[in-house]
Amino acid sequence: MTAKLNRTHFERRAFVYVRQSTAMQVHEHVESRQRQYALAERAATLGWSRGNIEVVDEDQGKSGATSEGRTGFARIADAVGQGQAGAILAVEASRLSRSSMDWQRLLALCAVASVAVIDEHAVYDPADGDDRMLFERDDINFLDREAFLAAC
CB burial class (10 A; 0-12, 13-18, 19+) of residue 127? Predict the structure, then answer.
């Protein structure tokens, strides 16, 4: 467990978002797909019961350029807004959305609803100023965060 997670997070669901942009990527990028599905195990290791972990993969083969037509993304955003989500897990921010507007709206909802955002390496609190600063940078993704922080 980490200091950024508390009992309230674990009482709600952890949503693991799995998405690749094209059918070709889904078929050919097996390692990426495996890494994304492995985040369900990360949620369990952090403390979520397996029954409270939901893998959302119906947006496979759909671009993240817009939320239109991505029912999985909409379902997660709805769960956040209704207070049903404790965390969203994704390998990197671009798996959630490549649209800055959609991404910033989701982060704002997460901050208000106390929903953690988790990648393979860290747990982020969108309400925390330092974590929020990382999310607001368009030129870095989750996997580059250590290099970015080291340079600050």
Answer: middle
